[in-house]
Design a protein that fits this description.
160 residues; alpha/beta; Rossmann fold; 2 domains; five-stranded parallel β-sheet
Length: 160
């Protein structure tokens, strides 16, 4: 089995059998010596994602409105998982709910490292706290200038 690994796998030190791949920015997130040692013991291959798959991930994250929650590392990790899942069976290991949500919408199999897996696939929008109008993104209402909150627009029960 091939696993695309987020930092949480190495931080928690979860043991899995298989081949491990991650992206350079995940390696940069590992500050703890135990996490780095865990990564080295797993013989992880480090590969940068391709720009084609980064664009696909960004487009999907914009559509689901998860783009505000995803870091550059998250996008790279999702791109690498999408790249591998297009050619062979791959599982993305992450505890990040926004990463899990986007991955599932991209058709990527997900497994948590230490937390629970998300139960529902969600899409989001922003709602103004003042005038209650809804917008696809932003922190400030373009109509009245009030702050906006993130609000769920759609929930689809994930198949188990």
């Amino acid at each position: 089995m091939k696993y695309i690994a987020d930092a949480s796998l190495f931080i928690i030190g979860k043991r899995l059998e298989g081949n491990f791949i991650t992206v350079p920015s995940v390696v940069g997130e590992l500050r703890d010596e135990n996490a780095r040692t865990s990564m080295e013991l797993m013989d992880v291959r480090v590969e940068p994602p391709t720009s084609v798959f980064i664009k696909k991930v960004r487009d999907k994250a914009l559509a689901t409105r998860d783009s505000e929650e995803l870091s550059a590392t998250d996008i790279e990790l999702l791109a690498k998982a999408l790249e591998y899942s297009a050619r062979e069976e791959t599982t993305l290991v992450t505890d990040d709910f926004a990463v899990q949500n986007t991955a599932l919408q991209l058709g990527i199999k997900v497994m948590p490292a230490g937390q629970r897996i998300i139960k529902d696939i969600l899409t989001w929008e922003k709602q103004c706290m003042g005038c209650k109008r809804r917008f696809p993104q932003g922190d400030e209402c373009p109509v009245c200038g009030s702050p906006m909150n993130k609000r769920r627009t759609n929930r689809v029960r994930k198949n188990k």
